[in-house]
Design a protein that fits this description.
Distance between the termini of chain A: 7 Å
Number of domains of chain A: 2
Oligomer: homodimer
Largest interface: A-B, 42 and 42 residues
CATH architecture of the largest domain in chain A: 3-Layer(aba) Sandwich
Largest sheet of chain A: 6 strands, parallel
Number of strands of chain A: 6
CATH class of the largest domain in chain A: Alpha Beta
Chain lengths: ~230, ~230
C-alpha cells in the first residue's frame, strides 16, 4: 500500500528533550536559590523525590509528566506549605531555559518529506510543553499537519487509539501510515499493533533488536528520507 | 468536636472566576483576530464547540477543563491544522487578562480565620490556572497552608479522597474540618459524605435547599466568621 502519512514522536526523535530539560532544571533551581539556600545536589534529590511522588499518585495520567506538579510538590516538601509565587517563578525559569535546541536536522528532514507525505506528531506529554517545542520546530503548522498530545486525547502511546486518531486526522488508513520514534514499545510496537508501519530511531548506544515485519531501523534522523524512498 | 481546619473551594467562592474568565476569553479572541477575521459571536460559538469536544473526549479528566486544549481544538477546527504559535498567543492573552479581580473580601475573611484555623483550598481544576489565582490571593502561602488541585491528586470533588487528603495535609480528622463552597454536589454533599462539616455559599439567585445535618448556609463570604464563631 502506498505510504501517505509519516508520524513522528517528538522527544528524542525530533527534539533533543533530555539536554533541553537539563538546562531547564538548572534554571528552575536558580530561581529557587534566589529565595532558599538549596544546593544543586540537594535540589536534584528533592526533584527526583517530588517527581516520583507525583508519578506514583497519578500513574499513567498525562499530568504525571507535568513539571509544574513536580515543582509544586518539591516546594511543599521543602517549605511545608504551598508557595504559588515560587512555584510559578520556577516554572517560568524552566520554560525560558529549555527551548534552546539545535533543530536543523529535524527541520531539514521534515521539509524534505512534507511535499510527499502528510506529516504529524504523536507525543505522550502535556499540551503546553509540546506546543512550546513546536513553536521552535514549526510554529505555524506548515510542516506538521497533525499534532496530537496524549493530554488532549486522554490516551497514550502505545495505545492503539492514539495511532488510529492520527490516521483519522491525516485522512489515511493505518496501512498507509508510518510512525518514526525512538521508543521501542511506544513508537515501534504500538504503531505496528495499530496496523501502521514503523521506523525505529535507535537511541545511541542501545542494543540491537530483531525488527518485526513492517519495521525498519535508522541511527540518525537524516537517514529517514532514503528509507522512505526505498519503501514500496 | 472542635473545628481545626477550614477548606475553601476557589472558583466562585474565593475567586470571582466567571467574570475573570469572560475577560480572558475576550482577550484570547483579540489575539486570534490579529491573524484571522473572526467576529466575537463566531468566536464564542467556535469556543463553545471546541470546549464541548474536548470535554466529551476527556470526560472527568482534569485536563477536560484546560483552556489551552480548548484553544488548540478551536484553532484546528478553524484552520484545519495545528498552529502552535497562535494557540500559545491566545493562551498568553487569556492568562494576562483574567487575573484582575476584586479579592478584598476573600482576603479579609481568610485573614480573620487564619489565626484560629488551618486554612486550605480544594479545587477541581488544572494546577497552572489555580496557582495563577493564588498568586493574587496568597502568593506565599501565608494564609492557606493547604492547596490541592484535582490535577495533582488525580481525583476530583466530590470524591472522598479529595477531602481526606486535605485533612491529612492539615493534620486533622475529617470531623475537625469544614468545607466552604458554592457547589452543592461537589462542596457540600461531597464533604459531608467524607465526614466533614460544610458551609454552602449560596450562588446569587439560586433556589433554597434543605440543609442536611452538619451543613450551614451563607449568602456572602463575609458571613463566614460569624457562622464559625457560633459553631461548637
Amino acid at each position: 500500500m502506498r505510504l501517505r502519512a509519516v508520524f513522528f514522536d517528538l522527544d528524542q526523535t525530533l527534539f533533543p528533550a533530555e539536554q533541553a530539560y537539563r538546562r531547564g532544571l538548572r534554571s528552575a533551581w536558580r530561581a529557587l536559590r534566589e529565595r532558599e539556600p538549596v544546593g544543586w545536589e540537594r535540589f536534584q534529590s528533592l526533584y527526583a523525590r517530588a517527581r516520583q511522588r507525583v508519578k506514583a499518585r497519578l500513574k499513567s495520567s498525562p499530568s504525571a509528566r507535568s513539571r509544574l506538579l513536580y515543582f509544586k510538590q518539591l516546594v511543599e516538601d521543602l517549605s511545608g506549605r504551598p508557595r504559588p509565587a515560587l512555584v510559578l517563578a520556577m516554572m517560568r525559569a524552566y520554560d525560558r531555559a529549555w527551548p534552546a535546541a539545535d533543530l536543523g536536522a529535524s527541520r531539514r528532514v521534515a521539509a524534505a518529506l512534507a511535499g510527499s507525505y502528510t506529516l504529524g506528531i504523536l507525543t505522550n506529554l502535556v499540551c503546553d510543553t509540546q506546543l512550546r517545542k513546536m513553536l521552535r520546530l514549526d510554529p505555524d503548522g506548515r510542516l506538521f499537519r497533525v499534532l496530537i498530545t496524549s493530554e488532549e486525547l486522554g490516551v497514550e502511546k502505545p495505545q492503539r487509539a492514539m495511532f488510529r486518531e492520527a490516521c483519522r486526522r491525516a485522512g489515511c488508513r493505518p496501512g498507509e501510515a508510518l510512525m518514526v520514534g525512538d521508543d521501542w514499545e511506544h513508537d515501534v510496537l504500538g504503531s505496528l499493533r495499530a496496523g501502521l508501519r514503523a521506523v525505529w530511531l535507535r537511541p545511541p548506544g542501545s542494543p540491537e533488536r530483531r525488527l518485526p515485519a513492517g519495521a525498519a531501523r535508522i541511527d540518525h534522523l537524516s537517514e529517514l528520507p532514503a528509507v522512505l524512498g526505498g519503501a514500496p
